[in-house]
Amino acid sequence: xxxxxxxxxxxxxxxxxxxxxxxxxxxxxxxxxxxxxxxxxxxxxxxxxxxxxxxxxxxxxxxxxxxxxxxxxxxxxxxxxxxxxxxxxxxxxxxxxxxxxxxxxxxxxxxxxxxxxxxxxxxxxxxxxxxxxxxxxxxxxxxxxxxxxxxxxxxxxxxxxxxxxxxxxxxxxxxxxxxxxxxxxxxxxxxxxxxxxxxxxxxxxxxxxxxxxxxxxxxxxxxxxxxxxxxxxxxxxxxxxxxxxxxxxxxxxxxxxxxxxxxxxxxxxxxxxxxxxxxxxxxxxxxxxxxxxxxxxxxxxxxxxxxxxxxxxxxxxxxxxxxxxxxxxxxxxxxxxxxxxxxx
Length: 344
Ligand SMILES: NC(=O)c1ccc[n+]([C@@H]2O[C@H](COP(=O)([O-])OP(=O)(O)OC[C@H]3O[C@@H](n4cnc5c(N)ncnc54)[C@H](OP(=O)(O)O)[C@@H]3O)[C@@H](O)[C@H]2O)c1
Hints:
By secondary structure, the chain is of the alpha/beta class.
């Protein structure tokens, strides 16, 4: 690839159901020139997040949809290569909404907020995984929304993913007596118990989640960290303890549905168990991100939080990489490497 070319992946049309290659278009534009108080960033690592499926749709959301013909919105980490900006210098790593493109000329503000300088001593791509949105979501979802406490029995769905894997480990750190993960496939379940320290892993592809939860949580579930929705959420609702807390983080099993899902059939369990189901958005915790990053860095360094990164390569593979989240091919955080850092 010529360094004078800026490859950009644009949203060509709104997907119906599953994401397809034809929903995107690859365009080549000239690499932007620096000036006017801006700086030029070489994009290096792209983050893949289920919420991108929502950004592609013209439905009410927490952010406006990506316009047709616009660069596909994405969090990413890049390196500043040239700067006319007083606060960013060549060689700095930055993370934020850099999008599916090779180069970005910016004043530091993106459509998803200001770019953050990656602190020295931190692996830049960790800013997209354990120290990024998914790690922060796990932290606030489990602690503030789930209000996990000593002795709790905790269930995490989507447990081998970027958010779920960290959420379950935080529950254990906070004193949960039993952490049960639900994930797809033997490899992921083995990783959960052998590496991430979950007490139990249930393979929803081959096991009956409802009866397994009843066996593994005989006194009921105190905290549910819900990433999947649908039948998996119903199985947890059927096995709640009194005063259970359900942190509704997401419902990825519904994101490609053309017709909206009717919701859990057994929601009255919330009444019977005096339980609380609360949705949350990590962005609301932005003023406290520093607290979470400090805690996560500490736990990673102490070997109390393990995380996996699933790294694909090549900007042209961005659509296929996004699909991996929905087919469950990723173990841990889904990333795409699109270049080596230009400045050593
Ligand atoms: N509320 C917030 O602020 C916030 C922030 C970030 C993320 N989230 C939500 O957190 C959840 C996890 O996101 P993530 O970025 O960490 O992704 P992830 O868990 O790393 O990847 C997605 C995983 O979802 C599972 N999955 C996909 N389709 C499924 C289906 N039909 N049934 C069951 N499992 C399915 C797959 O694992 P298996 O192989 O196990 O199926 C896949 O690996 C998503 O719901 C996302 O929307 C919310």
